Structures are given as structure tokens and as C-alpha cells.
Amino acid sequence: MRTVERESAQGPDGRVVPRAARQRTRPGLKEVAERAGVGVSSVSRVLTGHPEVSEVMRNRVMDAVAAIRYEPDLLAQSMRTGATMTIGFVVSDISNPLISEIALGAELRLREAGYSMMVTNSLNKPEVEADYIALLTRRRVDGLMLSITDETSEMMDAAVRRFDSAVVLVDRHVAGADYAAVNCDHAHGITEAFDHLVSLGHTRIGMVNGSPNVRPSRERAAALRRATRGSGTLSTVIRSAGFTPAHGYDATMKMMAGKDAPTAIIAGSNQILIGVLRALRGLGLSIPGDVSLVTCDAVPLADFLDPPLSTIARVPREMGRMAAELLLEQLAGEEPRTVMLPTQFVATLSCGPAADTHER
Amino acid sequence: MRTVERESAQGPDGRVVPRAARQRTRPGLKEVAERAGVGVSSVSRVLTGHPEVSEVMRNRVMDAVAAIRYEPDLLAQSMRTGATMTIGFVVSDISNPLISEIALGAELRLREAGYSMMVTNSLNKPEVEADYIALLTRRRVDGLMLSITDETSEMMDAAVRRFDSAVVLVDRHVAGADYAAVNCDHAHGITEAFDHLVSLGHTRIGMVNGSPNVRPSRERAAALRRATRGSGTLSTVIRSAGFTPAHGYDATMKMMAGKDAPTAIIAGSNQILIGVLRALRGLGLSIPGDVSLVTCDAVPLADFLDPPLSTIARVPREMGRMAAELLLEQLAGEEPRTVMLPTQFVATLSCGPAADTHER
DNA sequence: TTGTACGCGTTATCAG
DNA sequence: CTGATAACGCGTACAA
Fold it and tell me: Does A79 contact B75 at a Cβ distance shorter than 8 Å?
């Protein structure tokens, strides 16, 4: 049964400091060797599947292993082999459904390859991310998956440079580095949404965009600007800031207040969407009667919203799986590479004909 | 990048000692000691904050540490101290918003205490959970947070019994064990919802319940049965199965097909809810006109659904935080204990007066 | 107060 | 084919 160890102590800073050595030392190779009457190295050979072991030896060892209920110590194994079989995943907030889905995809693939995943949440603080990267480095994780808050953070950059193994960025780009990356084709989704809105008669389209310090926001804004470039009739208003409901709300209020308010809005994330919806509701604007709405990334129960939401979806599970894949490739000695995954625009009733703004 | 290679050295008996299997050249205590011109143990003492070290020694060491950019190897540290400062979190699916929120709460608290968190997804397969528990045991994690799929699984039970350190269950109960647990007061939420529905004239209430092999489902069903007990007019129909949209759909279809269809439904999870909504839509039933609806756990954008959904909410972030807390307590030597967290029923337009079933 | 030496559990080398 | 033994990097009795 569980033995409660009372010798532990509280450090001055409140951190729990467990007692030094574990009381009940579980059987090791040594015990197995004794039980089987062989040398420890033979036990190790059998367990690691070394080719040059006799049948008798194998049986003796396996019997002893079963009898003692021996389980290898992965810590010692890592110590010895240099591989921890652990991947660190640095994210802003695992409770973000997009991220948790990515995490799931990654973990499933990693498990297939025998790796475990360690998750850290920065809550959008670059310095925390840098700390975590350093921590994971000290933990000697074999690889790092990064979904960073701020691609331009120097602390983060320095920290990841000090990490000397496989790295993969998840829909991120850091200048002057050749990390592997899983990117999404935001331009495609934005362009499709744009075309759809234009076909409905919209001429001025607003975008409540996320932080410009991450790839998705930049790609989306660029794609939207590109779409209107050279057109005399089509225009755009883009407001970029944090991925928060507050930004969604404020940006929407400001956008809709002006004389040249857009007749359609693209929300840059599910968090931003919340604020956008609140603002529109507060202004008494109906969707799509007064303003059409598109949001980035899938929304749970989107079909049951009023009206159902048009979305530009990524494939988060696949993003995670692919990120893991790119990591495993590097760990297998291959060169880091970049993969582009699709986005898909799905139009619903939240996009309608452009309202005549003068009638309002 | 590791560029420096350490050459082979001469052993005490003149033999050539080969390089380590993996060529790591990150500086260790030894390098720091050499740079500072002191013994390795002195370096260790300084770094671990040993009280009996002179000022000069401390400075010499810290200077060398800074110069060499030494970072301690947490793996070796764990090897030596017996503590990995790592907690394993076994869940069915991190992409479930309830769970990812719990994970966030836990990770934030664990970080405060210097611990990292390792997440594993079983996708509701008890044998995978057992495997993971065994894996985390071999990894020698200091504690285990369990949000398991099936409390009655013997493989799981055996696996967790073989783990000999701190354990905390997250809204789970396994018979015959005294694990610490963070539980939620489901009875409270269900009772409130029930009373509200009854006050609206509902006499027959359906529950599309989750798996009976986990605490929340059992508590909810029990609370609902208790609420109708002794009443001649009030009745209940409960269907329990997996936490899936498919179950939500099937159960709803069957419930509503019978002659004594309920006029109100409680959905047992956000996944189940999806199926329930689809079924009601498929049947052409309106909410709350034909049937009132309550769902368990918060739904993103619940305010913007049509109609806004009544929910029985848990406090997932707090659940995670508290689970971490209970784990830390045990690691500090305290006895395992159980905490009860609240649930809250919030009524919205999705609950309305009972429809006269004969009019349909 | 500081340094030397040992051991945590494992794998890999090398000599039988 | 097998067994003894040196590391992996660190913390810590023990000796100086």
C-alpha cells in the first residue's frame, strides 16, 4: 500500500520539497540477476533484445522478471542512453479548444512512437514561455513543440536556441531560423471567405484580428489586404490585438461606430468571436441582417448557434499529428522541414447579402 | 549546438575509456568546478543552497556558473534525489473542454510548486489507461492525477495499486481505496435543475446520462431518482451509456418516441448534448416549446445558442487546481483527503413551461 | 568549511 | 555467449 512519508518539508518559498530518496526501492536489474543467477548485463541484454543471447538465458531471465515483477526504471534508462523519450509542448493555454485538439493529435502520434508529452501553459506571457523552454531543456526533453505567443520575443528566441535538439513550430514562424514547422494555409481560407462575401455584395469587410506577433494573424491580414489590392470599390478595416474577448468587443464597437462601418466581419479566433458577438448584440445588430459574420477555427455547436456560424477551419488534430511527425523525423536524423496544411471555409446563414448601411 | 567533442580518456588501469554513448558536452558540475578551481561538491552545495558555504566560495562558483552558462541536469538530479518533480495526468481526451480546463488549472498550480505535468489520452480505453499508469510509474512520476474512463476496470486498479506514491482522483471514486479526490456536488446541481423544471410544470424528466462507470453519471442519476422518490406524479427516464454524440442522439430518439416521452431533458455532457440537439432538431421539436433542455457543464457561447442553454456547471479550473493541491499535500507528507466542489445550475430560456404532450 | 568517493539503475564495452 | 565494470550527472556521507 501507499506509504505516507512524513519526512518531507515545506521550503521557505512554499515549494514542496519531497524527501530525498524514495523509501521503498523497487527491484532493479540487480535483483533480477540474483534471482536468475546470472549477471546484470545479461539481464539487460535480454530486456533490450540483444541478438546474441541463448534461449536458456532468455528464459531464465524472463522468468525472474515475471517472478520479481520487475519494471525497468525509465529514469535510469534515460540517464544512460541520453534519450528521455519525452517531448515538451509549449502553449499559451491548453484550455483553448484549438490547442487541446492539437495536443491530442500530437500525443496520439507520439505515443505510437513511444514518446510522452509534457505540456506547459504560458498564458500568453513570453517570459514564461522562455522559462518553460529552459526548464524543458534542463529536463532534457528530446524535442520541443512550440506554439508561442510572440514570435519576436528575444528571450524565447534565446531559450530555444540553447535547446540543442529537435524543434517544431506549430503555425509559427521565427525570423532567421530554420525550424521545422506545421503551417496552415490561412490565405486560402481568407480568400474564399472574402470571395463569398463579395459575391453577396459586401464591399467593406472588417477583420478583428489576433496578435500580429503570430503567423496566423499576419497571414490572414496579408491575405485580406491582397484581396482588396487594386480594387477601387473593395476596402478593408483590420484591427489586430490580443486573442481575447475584450479585444473582440472593443474592436467591433469601434469598427461599427464609424461612418464607414463594414457590412461583414471576420473574427480571428474563438476568443475574439465571443467579444464580437457581444458587441453586435449590444449594438442591436442582427446577423446577417445588419452584418455578416465569419469566424476562424471551428466552434463547438456552431450548427446550433443563431444563426449558424460560417467558419474558416483548420485541421487541428492533423496539425498536432503532423507536428509530432516532423519531430520524429528529426529525431530519426532527417532534416527539419515545413508542411502546409489546408484551411476550409464553410459558408452558412451567418453570411447574407450586404446591408445598405444608409438605411440603418 | 554541440561542437566540442570530448576525447577518450585513460582509465585508472591504463585502459582506454570510450566516450559516452551520446556525446553530450553541456557543462556539468565538473566543468564548473574546474573553472572555479574548487571541488564538485562545493559547486553542488552552493547550487542547492547549503547553509555552510563561505561567501567567497559562493561567489567563485556563481561566477563560474555564469561564465560556463551551466544549467543543472534535472534528469541526474531526479536520479539522485528520487524525485522527478513530474506529475502524470491520465485523461480520456484532452480535447474535451472540461478536461483541458482542469488540466490548465492543475498545471498552473503544479508550476507554482516546481512540478511539471505529463498528459496522456486514453480515448476511453481502460486498457490504455492501465498501460499509461504503468508507463508513468516506470517514469517514476511523483504523483498521479486520474480522470479515468472506467472506475471498475481491474487492469486500471491493479496498475494504480502498483504505483506507490501520491494519487488523486478527479471526480472519480474507486471502491475499496482511500485515494484523495476532488469531487463535484452533482446532486446539488441536478436537484436545482429538477426543482426548476418541476416549477415549470414538468412531471416527466429525461436524462441522457453518461457512462455509469464514472462518479458524475452515478451521482446525477441517483440525485434524479431521489428527487422523484415518493412522488406519485413525478417520474424519470434515464438512459446511461458512453459520453458520445451517438449516445445522445440514440437515447433522445428512443425517449421521445415512446408514449410517455419526457417534456424536459438533461444532457449528461457536452458530447452527449450534441447528439441530443441533433435528435431534437431531427424530430422537429423546438426548445423549449416542445421540450425543455438542460446540459451538464458549461458550453462555449451558450449565450448565443438558440435558445441559450441552461447549464449545470462545474468549476473545472478550480477542480484542476485543487487536484494539484491535494497531490502536493500528500507529497508534503499529509494524509490524502477528499474535497467537494460546488455545481451551479443556471436557468435560461431553454427551460420553459411543460408542453401538453397530447397536443402534439 | 571544503574535497574525495560512492551510488542512484541502466547500458555498453571488453575480456573471458 | 556471458559477466564484471565503467560511465551518465548529480547529491551527500565522511574524512580532512
Answer: yes
